[in-house]
Amino acid sequence: MANRRDFLKVAGAAASLAVFGLSSAPLLPDLFKIRGEVIPPDPLGTESVTQIKYSVCLQCHSACGIRCKVVDGRLVKIDGNPYHPNTLEPHIPYDTDPVEALNYVGTACAKGQAGIETLYDPYRVKSPMKRAGPRGSGLWKTISWEQAITEIVEGGLLPGAREGEPEYVFEGLKDIRRYISKDEVESVLGVSIKDFVGKPKGERDTVLADLSVDDRTRLEESLIDINKPELGPKSNQLVHMVGRAEHGRKEFTDRFFGDYMGTLNMRNDHTDICELSHHVGINLIRGKDKAPADLVNCQFLLLFGSSLLEAGFPFISAARKTITSITDGHMKLVVVDPRLSNTANSAHQWIPIIPGADGALAMGMLRWIIEYGAYDKRYLGNANKKAAIDDDESTWSDATYLVNTGTWKSTNKVVDPSTEEVVEIDPQDDEHSQHGVLEPGEVVIDGVVHKTAFTLLKESAYEYTMKEYASASGVEIDTIETLAREFTSHGKSAVAHFYRGPVQHTNGIYNALAISTLNTLIGNTDWRGGIAYGGHDFHEKGDNKEQPYPDVFGKGLKPGRVSPWGIRVSRAGAKYEETTEFTDNGYPAKRPWFPLLGKNLSHVCLQGIADQYPHPIKAVFITKANFNYSTPGMRTIIEDAFTDSKKVPLFVAFDIIIAEFSSLADYIFPDGTYLEQWATPHVHYHILTRCSGVRQPVVDPIHPDIRLEEDVLINIGKKMGLPGYGKDGFGPGMNLNTAWDWYEKPIANIGWYANHKDTPGIKDIGDEQGQVNYMLARGGAFEPYEKAYDEEWPFKPYHKWGASSSPLKIYIEKTGTLKDSMTGKLFPGVAKWVPVADAMERTVDDPGFSFTLITYKIPIHTQSRTVANPLLMEIWPENWIEMNRADAERLGIKNKDIVRMTSKTNMIGVTGKAKLREGIRPGVVAVSHNYGHWQYGASPNVVDGSETGHNPSRAAGVQSNEVMRLDESIGGTMCLTDKIGGSASFYDTKVNVEKA
Fold first, then answer.
1. Closest by CA position to 180, among listed 224, 123, 126
2. Is 546 a domain residue?
3. Are residues 808 and 886 in the same domain?
C-alpha cells in the first residue's frame, strides 16, 4: 500500500494538469440558466500553480461533493463536484476523464461556497492551549504538543475550576483506564451480574462479604462501585461526546475510546437534539432508520415538519428534485407545519398544525382510511415472502400476525383465509405462499386472547373520534378526511414524509409511528414514487470478507482490543429493571432510562454528568461539539456541571475555534477543518444510486501547530503503550502512526466494492493503489445515474428494502413489551395519539404562558458554526422572534420592536427583534437557530497575556434554546424528553412575548 503522499501526488497531478486550456462556455446555456439569465462560472485558471481537488463539504450534513480550486497552496474557490449525485442531475459518468470533467460543474449552495471562510477564519485555535484561569474565564496559555499529550496521559495540575478555588491535580488517562472484563467480574462473584443485582440487598452483601481480600481489592480497584457491579469498570468514567463526526472519523474515535480505553461512554453524539425519534421510529418499523420518498416520481407528497427547500438532506438535491416534480406538474405537495416555510410557500396546500399534534392528524387519517377500507388489502394480507413475490411486491407486513394480549408478544401465527384456522408460518418462506386474515376477531390460543396487528391499530385509531383528532391537531375534520382520501388515491405513488418537526417532542416516537404507518397501509415501499431504500454507500466498513480490510469499522484489525460493558451515563441501551436501584427501590427511577437506544443521547449524558447519575465521571473529551449552545433549556445546568471540578475533573476539547462549550475546557486541541481532514461520509437516502464521497485534505493545515484529532489520539495511544497504536497497530506488519494509516483502509474498501459492482471506469482497475487514485481524482465512487431504477422491474427503484426489512411492523413488540422506567406501565405497541407530557406523564400546558415556541433552520446557515462565515452573515445577519400579526397587534407589538420572550423555566428570558407575519399559526412563535452566540469569535479571549480579536456581529440575534422547558418532574436538570425515542424537546415550551 502506498503512503498518503504518494496517493495525493498521483491524484493531485492528474487533477492539476487538467486545468490547462479548458473552457466551460459551451455548457453555459444548460448548466447556468436561472430565470433566463446566464451566470458565468468562476474561471478554473490556467496557472501552473493551480490545482483542482475533490472532497466533501461539511458546512451542513448533506455531504455534497465539492471541487476546490487551490492556487499556490491557497484555497480560492469551492464549486460542486459534477461526479457527485448531490450536486448535478444527472451527474456525469464516473469514467469521465478528469480533464473532460472540468467542462462540467455541480451546484454548491451558499453555505458550501462560504466554506473557504471556515478554513481561513481569523479566530481559529492555532496551537494547543491550556486554561490559565477558572473554567470559562477566557484566560489561556499555549503549550507544546509534547506537554499536552504528556499531561493528558500522566495527569497534571490545573487552576481551580471556579474563581477562588485552589489548584488541583487531575488523573491522566493511564490512571482512568482501569478496565476489567465482565467475565472476570462474574468469575470473582461466582454469579452473573444480572443475577447478582436481582438479589435482595442482604444477599448481595453476603456475596461481597464472602470474597477474599484479594478478590475484593481487585473489584474495588476496577469497578466504579463494587456494590453496583452493573455500572461496569472505572474506564467508563471516561466520556467522549460528539457534535459532528462523520463516517471514518467516528469509527476511529470509537476505536480509541471504546476498543482501547475500554469506556462504554464513547461517542455520545448529538442525534437526540436533531431528529433521533425519527430514526428510532422508522427503525422500529423497518429495521433501518431512514425511509426516503422517491421525490422524482412521487405524485402526492405529504410533508410533516420537514422543509426540503430550506434544510432537507441533501439540501441541494432534495430541493432540486422537489421543485422539478412540482413544476413538471406530476407532484402535489402538501406541507404540515405551524410555520409557512419556503417549502410550504411552494406547496399546493399549507396546513398550520398545532405544534406536537402531527400524530393526531396522522391518526385521524388512519381512522378514516381504516373506516372506509382505503388501505391496500392485498398488500396487507400477504403474510410471507412468497405471497409478496406472487403479488410483485418485495416487502410485506405483520398486519395479519397474531399478538398475544397477555404477554404482548407478537407471534408468527395467522388465521388462514381459506381454512379460518390458526397456522404457524415462516415469514421468510419463499416457496409456499401464505396469506392471513386482517380482522378475524378475537382468537383464543391456549386460553389467551390474540388479536392481529391490524386489529390493534384499528382499536388505537378508534380511541378518539374525528372531532377529537381535529380539536387536538387544530385541523378541520374535512381537511383530515380530504388528506386521507387523496393520500390513498395515488396507488403506490404517495408518501407521508417527516423529519425533525413531528419528533422533537415528548410524544415524538408516536408521532413518527403514526406517520410511518400511513405508508405501510398503502404498501408503497419499493415502488416508484413511494418509499425508496436509497443507494447507500460502497461499504467502506469492510463487511465483505474479500475486501482488502475486512471489518475495519468493527472488530477487525484491532489487536488486544477490549470489550466495553456496563451502563452509560446516559442510561442508553440499559434496562432499569436490571439494576440494583430497581431491586432496592422499584419505580420510579430517579431519571428516565432508554433501553432501545445507543450512543445518541448527548443531552441525557449531560444530565447524567450533572446529577452524577447513574455514576460519576472523571474526564470528558469532545469532538466538534457545542452543547451548552445547542441543547434546549440546559445551558445553566451544563455550565454549572462543567465548572465543577468534582463533577468534571478533566475536560478536553478538539475544536477549530473557542466555541461556547470548548470555552469551558481545560485544554483545547486545534483540529483541522473539514477542508484539512479525511472522512468517508454517507449521503442521505434521497439519493437512489450508490454513492461514497471521500473527504480528503484540499490544503495542508493552514497553521503549523494544527493536528488532526486522529493523529493526536494515535500519539496518546502510543504514549500509553496501547496495543492498537504504533508498530503493528493493525496487526503484524500494519502500523498505525498517522491518520492516513487509518483512512487508506476504508478508502481501499470502497475501491474494491466499486470494482466488484462493475462501476464504470474503476471496474477495469485491478490493483488497490490504482483504485484509490482513481477515486481521489473524482472525489469518491459513484454509481451511474441510470442505476436509480430497475430495468427489469421498471416500476421499482434498483436498490430495494426487500425481504431483509420484512415484515414491516404495524405492531412494535419492542415498545409493547417495554415498561416505562418512571411509571412502571407498558408503552403502547402500535401507533397512537399521545399528548405532550413530562417524564411522570403529567400534561405540560403551563397556564399563563400564551404561545408555543418552535425553531427552524434557514437555508443560509447551519447549526452553530456558519456564524463564522462573513459572506453568509452579510446575506442574513440576524434572526427574529417571529409571530402572527394578529397576536402582535393584540399585544401592541410592531415589526422590529425589541421584545422579551420568557418561559416557566427562564423568567428572565431572552430579547430579540419582533418580526410580524401572517405565515405562522396564531399562538405560535418561531425563532430560527444559528444566532445568539457569546463565543465562537463573538467575544475576546486572552491567550498568553494578549487579547484575541473578535467580531461582535457574531453575537447578533437571539438564541431561543435558553428559554426552553426543563422537566421539573425529575428535578429540572434535563429538558423535556421523548422517553422512548430519546429526542430532546424543542417544540413543547410555552412562552410569553412582550415589549422589552
1. 224
2. no
3. no
Under 8 Å between Cβ of 988 and 904? no
Which residues face 403 on adjacent strands? 410, 451
The pLDDT tens digits for 857-903 are 999 998 888 999 999 999 999 999 999 999 999 999 999 999 999 99
Which residues 6+ apart lie within 8 Å of 245 measured at CB? 253, 267, 269, 623, 624
Backbone conformation region of residue 933, classed left if phi is above 0, alpha if psi is from -120 to 50, else beta: beta
Judge whether 472 lies within some domain: yes
> Which helix (H) or strand (E) is 140 found in, with range?
strand 139-142
d(CA 414, CA 438): 9
Do 654 and 930 form a contact (C-beta atoms < 8 A)?
no
Q: Which domain holds residue 441?
A: 278-532+799-816
Angle at 47 between CA 41 and CA 49, to 5 degrees: 115
Strand partners, 900: 911, 994
Q: What pLDDT, in 10s, does the model give residues 249-275? A: 999 999 999 999 999 999 999 999 999
Exposure of 117 by Cβ count < 10 A (0-12 exposed, 13-18 middle, 19+ buried)?
middle
Q: Same domain for 453 and 513?
A: yes
380 lies in the same domain as 316: yes
* Candidate from 9-18, 478-487, 551-560 with smallest mean pLDDT: 9-18
In a domain, 945, yes or no: yes
For residue 482, the tally of other CB atoms under 10 A from its CB is: 15
Counts of helices then strands in the chain (DSSP H, E): 33, 35
Residues in a beta bridge with 332? 300
Helix (H) or strand (E) holding 362: helix 358-371
d(CA 405, CA 685): 37
Residues 808 and 934 in one domain: no
Dihedral angle of Cα 63, 550, 624, 508, to the nearest 10 degrees: 70
Give DSSP secondary structure letters for 820-850: PTTT-PBPPSS------B-TTS-B---TT--
> Using the 8-state DSSP alphabet, how is residue 560 labeled?
T
Residues 805 and 936 in one domain: no
CATH number at residue 912: 2.40.40.20
How many structural domains are present in the chain? 2
Q: Do residues 318 and 435 share a domain? A: yes
**Tens digit of pLDDT for each residue in 963-982?**
999 999 999 999 999 999 99
Q: What value does the mean pLDDT take over residues 73-79?
A: 96
Q: Is residue 905 a part of any domain in this protein?
A: yes
For the purposes of burial, counting CB atoms within 10 Å of the CB of 555, is it exposed (0-12), middle (13-18) or buried (19 or more)? exposed
For residue 319, what are the contacts with CB-CB under 8 A and spacing of at least 6?
A: 308, 309, 312
Q: Do residues 809 and 937 share a domain? A: no
Report yes or no: 354 and 922 within 8 Å, Cβ to Cβ.
Answer: no
Q: Are residues 804 and 925 in the same domain?
A: no
In sequence order, the 6+-apart residues with CB closer than 8 A to the CB of 135 are 161, 162, 642, 643, 651, 664, 665, 666
The sign of the torsion formed by the CA atoms of 854, 860, 866, 872 equals negative
Among the listed residues 821, 829, 834, the one whose alpha carbon sits nearest the alpha carbon of residue 407: 829
Distance, in Å, from the CA atom of 66 to the CA atom of 82, rounded to the nearest integer, reads 8
CATH assignment at residue 427:
3.40.228.10
- Say how far apart CA 323 and CA 325 lie, in whole Å: 5
Angle between helix axes 466-473 and 358-371 (nearest 10 degrees) is 160
